[in-house]
Amino acid sequence: MGIVQIAAVIVILLLLVKPVGTYLYHVFSNEPSRTDRIFGGFERGIFKLSGLKNREGMTWKGYAISFLGTNIVLVAFSYLFLRLQGALPMNPNGTGGMEQSLTFNTVISFMTNTNLQHYSGETGLSYFSQMAVITMMMFTSAASGFSVAVAFVRGITGRDTVGNFFEDFVKSITRIFLPLALLVTLVLVALQVPQTLQPSLHVTTLEGGSQQIAIGPVASLESIKHLGTNGGGFFGANSAHPFENPSPLTNVIEILSMWTLPASLPYMYGLFAKNKRQGWMIFSAMMTLFVLLLGLNYYAETAGNPAINAMGIDASQGSMEGKEVRFGIAQSSLFTAVTTAATTGSVNNMHDTLTPLGSITPLSLMMLNNVFGGKGVGLVNMLMYAILGVFLCGLMVGRTPEFLGRKIEAREMKLIAIAILIHPLIILAPTAAAFLTELGKGSISNPGFHGMTQVLYEFTSSAANNGSGFEGLADNTTFWNVLTGIVMLLGRYVSIIAMLAVAGSMIRKKPVPETIGTFRTDNGLFTGILIGTVLIIGALTFLPVVVLGPVAEYLTLR
Amino acid sequence: MKNTSSYILSIVRLSAIFIILCGVVYPLASTAIAQVLMPSQANGSLLKNSAGQVIGSELIGQNFTNPALFHGRVSSIDYKAEASGSNNYGPSNTDMLKRTSDFIAQWKLDNPQVPVNQLPIDLVTNSGSGLDPDISPASAIVQVPRISSLTGLSSDKLEQLIQSHTEGRELGLFGEERVNVLKLNKALFELSAK
Predict the structure, then answer these.
(1) How far is A236 from chain B (nearest CA, A)?
(2) Residue B20 and residue B78 in one domain
(3) Min CA distance, A307 vs chain B (Å)?
(4) Residue A443, by phi and psi: left (phi above 0), alpha (psi -120 to 50) or beta?
(5) What are the start-end ranges of the H helices in A273-327?
(6) How many CA atoms lie within 13 A of A369 on its CB side?
(7) Which of B49, B88, B171 to mutate to probe the A interface, most A CBs <10 Å?
(8) What is the average per-residue pLDDT within A498-502?
(9) Angle at Cα A244 formed by Cα A239 and Cα A246, nearest 5°?
(10) Which one of B15, B66, B97, B171 makes the best mutation probe of the A interface by having the most chain A beta carbons within 10 Å?
(11) Which residues contact A291 (CB under 8 A, 6 or more apart)?
(12) Which residues have C-beta within 8 Å of that of residue A38, sequence separation ≥ 6?
C-alpha cells in the first residue's frame, strides 16, 4: 500500500508537468497570450508605481545587478522589521525584537530561499514578521530564483537577450505565485489549516489540565512555503505540526505544491529550446535519480531501527521515532525525498531521527542539488551538468563540444567549474572548521557518528539553500548563525552569477549547423551520460564524508 | 549619476510594493476570506464538551496520564502546544534507547494482560511534532484490557468505540489508519457517564 500511494502521487505529478510547463512558457516567452488580459493591467499598475517605464532586454550583467539590487533592498527592509518587531503592530503575543546575529542569519536564510530557521516561530516572531518578512520573502526569493532560471534558459537557447529582470520578477509573482498561493491557501483552510489573527488559545483539557495552543495566519504561509520551495515553517515542528499539515490529504497537496513547478521547468525549457524531447530527457534523468534515492529511504525507514526492533515490540510499522501516525512511512518518506530534491526544506518528520541509511537520501539529494531543485536553480544546475557531460564526451572523441548548436569553449567551462566546485567547498570546509573548534563541536546533541552527520547536514542544507536540518543541533549561536549565513550567501549568489555569465557568453555565439557528426543531446544515450556525470562527480566529492557519518553509524547499529 | 539614483529608487519602490502586496494584502485577504467562508477550520477546529466549553483542538494531541483513559504517543514536550517538536534523538542515541526501554518496562507493569510483542512501535516512540493527535488502531486495542479492568466497561464495548473512531486512509489511498485520542477519550467519558 505504501508503494501504491507513492506511485499515485508521482502519476499526478506526471499529468501536471505538461500543462504547467506550457503555462510557464507562455508567461516567460513574452509573446502575447490570453493571460495578458487578466494580469496585464495589474502589472502595468505595478510598473507605473515603481517608475520602471522601459523594460527592454538586459545584458547578463544588467540582469545580475538588478537581481542583486532587489535582493539587497528587500534584505534591508526585513532586517529592520525583525529588529523592531517588538514596537511594530500585529504582535498580540508581545514578542520582542530579534537578536543581531540571529536576524542576520534569518534575513539571509529567507532571501536566499533557504529558510534555515535558527529561531522558533511560536516564540521568536510577531504575526507582522511572519507576514511582512517571512511570507513576503517566500514570494520574492522564489520569484528571484525563477527569473534567473528563465534568463539562463533564454541565454543558452539563443533568444535575443536574457530578458528583463523586473519583468520576469513581477510576472513570476502576479501570474504564478500569488494566484496559486491564494488557491492553495483556501484549499488548506478547508482541510483545517488555521488562518487567524487571534493570539494563542488557552483551554482546559479533557483531563482538567491547561493547554496553551499557538495559532495564527498559518495557511497563507503554508501555501507559499511550498509553492516557492521555501520551507520555513510557521511552527518549530514545521509540516509535522498538525496545524501546518493536519491530514494525509494536505500532505499530498503540500508535496505537489513544492514539486510541480520545479518538475515542469524542464518541459518549459524544452519549449524554449524548440526540442521537447530534450526537456523530457532532462526530466527523466532527474526522475531516475529521484526514484533511486527515494527507494533507499523508503526501504531503510520500513526496515526500522535495529536497536529498537530488538526490544521485542511490534515494529511492523517501521521507524516511527520522529514521525506522525497519520503519515506513516510512505507519506513521510516521499515528503523527505521531495523536500530535499526540490530544495524546499520543510519537514513532516524529523530528519535527525531518520535511520542511518534513510538519512543518506536527503543528504545526497542536497549534495547533488540538481534533481528537480527549487525555484529554477535545479534546472540550471542540471543544464550545467549537461554541458559538462557534452564537454567530456567531446574530449573523448576529439571534437569541439556543442550544446544546442553552440560551441562550448574555455570561458564557459571555467565558469561551470567554479559553479560546480563552490558547492562541495562550502560544505566540506566549514564542516571541517566546525569540528576543529569548541564553538562548533559544543552544539552537537547526538553522540558518535550521528554527530558528524548533524554538522554535515547543517552545512549541506545551507549550501543547497534547502533549509531543513538535523534539528537537534543547538544552532542558534553566533558561530552557527554567522557561518551558515555566509555559506547560504555563497551557495546562492556565486553559482547564480556564474550561470548568468555562461548565459551571457552563449547568447553571443553564432549557431553552428547540425551535421551527421553532431553529438545528439535528446536521446537515451545522453540521459545515461547525464546521470553518469552527476553520479560520478557527486560520489567522488562526497562519498568519503558520507562514509564517516551515516554509513559508520549504520555499521555500528546493525 | 541621476540615472543610477532613479534606478535605485525604482528598486526601493518595487520592493515596497511587494512588501505590501505579498506581506500584508495577501495574508490579510486570505484571513478575511477564510474567516468568512470557513470560520471553524480557520480558528483551529476547536472541540467542545457537552457543556459547550472548549476542551482543545481536535488536531492537537493532549497529555493523558489517567490510566483509565487512552494514552497518546510519547511527547518530550508533554503536549505543551505553545511550542512544538521533539528531542531529535538519532537512531544510535543512548538517551533515546534508554527512554524507549524504560517506557516498555513501565508499560509491562501497567498492562500485564498484554504480551509485549503486541505493543505497536508508534506508542513507544516520540512523534515529530510532539503534538501528534493520533495513534494507530492497534495501539488503541492494546490499551483495552487495562481500561476495561479500571472502568468496568466491557472489552467489546471499548473495541466498538475504537472501531467507530478509526479514520481510514484518505480517498481510500493516502496516509495510514488512525484513531484520534482526544475524540476517543471524549467518547469514553460520555460512555462512562451513562
Answers:
(1) 6
(2) no
(3) 8
(4) alpha
(5) 276-303, 306-309
(6) 28
(7) B88
(8) 93
(9) 100
(10) B15
(11) none
(12) none
- Please indicate, yes or no, whether residues B29 and B49 belong to a single structural domain of this protein: no
pTM higher than 0.90:
yes
Does B23 contact A331 at a Cβ distance shorter than 8 Å?
no
Q: Which residue has the cell 527549487?
A: A374
Q: Which of A357, A389, A385 is nearest to A371 (CA)?
A: A385
Q: A373: pLDDT confidence band, cut at 50, 70 and 90? A: confident
Mean pLDDT of chain A: 93
Closest-CA residue of chain B to A1:
B173
Phi/psi for B42 (5° steps) reads -65, -20
CB B128 to CB A349 under 8 A?
A: yes
* Same domain flag for B53 and B127: yes
Measured CA distances, A370 to A305, A379, A465 (Å): 30, 7, 12
In angstroms, the separation between the Cα of residue B1 and the nearest Cα of chain A is 16
Complex ipTM over 0.90: yes
Please give the residue that has the higher pLDDT: either A468 or A516.
A468
Query: Rg for chain A (alpha carbons), in Å?
Result: 23
Query: What's phi and psi for A212, nearest 5 deg?
Result: -105, 125
**Residues of chain A positioned with their CB less than 8 A from the CB of B59:** 192, 242-243, 246
DSSP state of A411: H
Chain A, chain B: beta-carbon pairs less than 8 Å apart: 369
**Strand B46-48 with A406-407, pairing:** unpaired
User: Which of the four pLDDT bands, split at 50, 70 and 90, describes residue B2?
Assistant: low
* Confidence category of residue A512, pLDDT binned at 50, 70, 90: confident
Instruction: State how far the Cα of A33 lies from the Cα of A458, in Å rounded to an integer.
Output: 44
Q: Which residue has the cell 472501531?
A: B163
Q: Tell me how crowded residue A432 is: count the other CB atoms within 10 A of its CB.
A: 13
Neighbouring C-alpha atoms within 13 Å toward the C-beta of A162: 29
Judge if B96 and B146 occupy the same domain.
yes
Domain shared by B105 and B132, yes or no: yes
Whether residue B149 is found in the same domain as residue B97? yes
Task: Match 511560536 to its residue by C-alpha cell.
Answer: A122
Contact B30 A312 (CB under 8 A): no
Give the separation between CA B80 and CA B61, rounded to whole angstroms: 9
Alpha-carbon span A137 to A154, nearest angstrom: 25
Cβ–Cβ below 8 Å for A313 and B185? no
pLDDT reported for residue A397: 84
Task: Measure in Å the smallest separation between the Cα of B193 and chain A Cα atoms.
Answer: 14
- Regarding whether B99 and B36 lie in a shared domain, the answer is no
Burial A39-75 (b: 16+ CB within 10 A, else e): beeebeebbeebebeeeebbebebbbbbbebbbebbb
Instruction: Search chain A and give the residue with CA nearest B187.
Output: A206
Cell of A380: 540550471
Name A406's bridge partners: A403
Residues B21 and B117 in one domain: no
What is the mean pLDDT of the segment spanning A101-124? 90
> Range of B168's domain?
45-193
B130:A237 CB<8 A? yes
The total of structural domains in chain B comes to 2
Question: What is the DSSP code (8-state) at residue B126?
Answer: B
pLDDT, tens digit, 9 for 90 and up, residues A341-356? 998 999 999 999 999 9
> What average pLDDT does this structure show over A209-238?
93
Which residues neighbour A61 within 8 Å (Cβ) at sequence distance 6 or greater? A504
